[in-house]
Amino acid sequence: MRAFYLHGARDLRAAEIEQPQIAADEVLVQVRATGICGSDLHYYIHGRNGDFVPECPFVLGHESAGEVVDAGAFTDGLPAGSRVAIDPSHPCRTCAYCRQGRYNLCPQMRYFGSAACSPPQDGSFREYVPVQAHNCHLLPRALDYRQAALLEPLSIAIHGVGQAGSIAGKRVLVTGAGPIGQLIGLIARHYGAAHLAVSDIRQSALDLAALLWADQSVHADDPAAVAQAAGEGFDVVVEASGAPAALQTAYLHCKAGGTIVQLGVQGGPVELPVNLVMQKELTVRGSFRFAHVFPQALDLLVRRQLDLVPLISQCVAFPDLLAGFDAALQPQTIKVVVDY
Ligand SMILES: [Zn+2]
Ligand SMILES: [Zn+2]
Question: What is the pLDDT of residues 13-34, one digit of tens each?
Answer without folding.
Answer: 999 999 999 999 999 999 999 9
